[in-house]
Design brief:
The protein has about 210 residues and is an all-beta fold. The chain is built from 1 helix and 12 strands. Strands 1, 2, 3, 4, 5, 8, 11 and 12 form an 8-stranded antiparallel beta sheet that branches. Strands 6-10 form a two-stranded antiparallel sheet. A two-stranded antiparallel ribbon has the order 7-9.
Length: about 210
Amino acid sequence: MGLLTLGLAPLVVMASPGVASAASTVCLQNADSSQTDIVGNWSTPNKTQSITVQSAKNTWQDWTWRGPTFQCPWNVPSCTYAWQQAKTTGWQWSVGLSIKIPIPKLDNWLDEVTPSYGRDGSTTTSYTFTTALKPGQFAQPIQVVERRWTQGVYQGIYHSTGKSCLPSPSKPNGKAYEYTWSNERWGSWTTNLKVGDYGTHHVWTS
């Protein structure tokens, strides 16, 4: 599915719902009292969504932690390695995150609809398994976050009709306007999206 190029007015930092004046419109109030376009969020009837339009066929490994290294002696037929311990490693979802939107400033609600936006997590692995090694081989426990490059767009936007309406009770001195919802697509985002995480041993020969 291709990307659509749309000319949009600048979005705003905040939006709060007021009183709808018609079935096809909703009364919304920007933080700066402007009539600029609004991202649909938890406080509006319609929600802006992130749509995936392209992703890489293959995934790649992000090694978030490497443990102590062990070498199998050269003067033995073989050996086994077991690093029996639990390890927790923190990591960020937003690796490689890039957001391109046709506005001069980011909208505060984009973090609700953008995958991986500013979030983090952790991986806990209990290393109780053993690894067979050949003489001279090295081994070390590692934790891996598997990621996939993903690209998408945003869908859904509120456009002002230019008609004023009653402001929100929480901001009685601000200006509010009627907005109509459009399902058009706009902007773009890319990120190395986390698809899985696990622990294993890295084995190599020097």
